[in-house]
Amino acid sequence: MNKRTAPLAVLALSVAAFVSMPIAQAQDTAASTPKQIKKAQRKEARAKKNAELKQLEQDGYNPAGEQTNYPQNLQNAQSKINAQKAGKPAPASTP
């Protein structure tokens, strides 16, 4: 190949790959900047943490409540969640 045909071949393959890509995917790729990707990742992580906190609160943990038994209250709620995920009965909580 001469020097001029090699870049043309690469360009032709690139265009062929882009044309065969679905339109929505092409738009998402073109519209996603690194800043937008990081923002989406932060939003996803925040939603996951909020869901975990909500589950802990449903199982008895109160982050705004009395903090004298803080570690034990949190551990009890976490053990209930782990037991539910494993399909086992929840262990008895200690005061």
Automatic annotation (TrEMBL):
Q: Does the keyword Signal apply?
A: yes
Bias-annotated ranges (Basic and acidic residues): 42-57
Keywords carried by this UniProt record: Signal
Q: Where is the composition biased (Polar residues)?
A: 65-82
Chain segments carrying region Disordered: 26-95
Residues annotated as signal peptide? 1-26
Protein name (database record): DUF4148 domain-containing protein
Name its species.
Caballeronia zhejiangensis
